[in-house]
Please model this.
Amino acid sequence: MLARGDDPPRPPREGMRRRWFTVAVAASSAFIAVYIPHVIRVGTKVVGFLPGYLQQENYTTGSRYGIIGLFIIGPLATVVALLILAAVAFAVLQFSHPDRPWTGALVMTAAALAVATPHYQWYSLLLVMLVALDGRPEWLAFAAGGYYAAYPALGARYFLPWRLHDAVAYGVPLVVVGAGWLIRNELAKRAALAAQPAVTEPAAAEPTVAEPVVAEPVVAEPVVTEPVATEPVPAEEVPV
Model:
């Protein structure tokens, strides 16, 4: 119950938009609090094998991105990859449903897979879990793409050039998800039209203009009465 004069509660996403500084400080503080014990204990080794992994997989040189690498190679490819991920994160923050957080997480995870195009299929396990929550099976194409990226020659009779392996592995899922999005939107539009009650527009009656009736003067003909001739009635003789 709201007391008189109280404002109604804002949705979570609206609150994040209005108090973005508070949310950012809270998230950063939680991250720092979790990692401070590890930093105190091992120092810079807290990052683990991440720098070696990025170097080993050629992310540091910008030649590892399967789809972006078809157009851009080098440090600029890394900049483009970061800009794409930032744009997707901003779109998820602005347009995702606050009551379905797994949908935004699914989009963000799929975007990271499409940008990074990893060779290891286990990176898609998080996406599979999110698909189970979201309920749209077309996103599982990214998991299948991860297996193709790991084993491009598995059961294949025809081989693509090695430069296209990662682009095909994660580019085809993008097409599948896009086609699913178009089909779902079209079905939703048809369902919305079918659910609407049929409204019959009243037929607009055209005004009828009554033409004036011109009465012709009726000329009365004189009635001529003919005289009726009466025959004389003979008087009866009276005897005297």
Summary: The chain has two domains: 11-47, 49-195. The chain has eight helices and no strands. Confidence is low (pLDDT under 50) at residues 1-5.
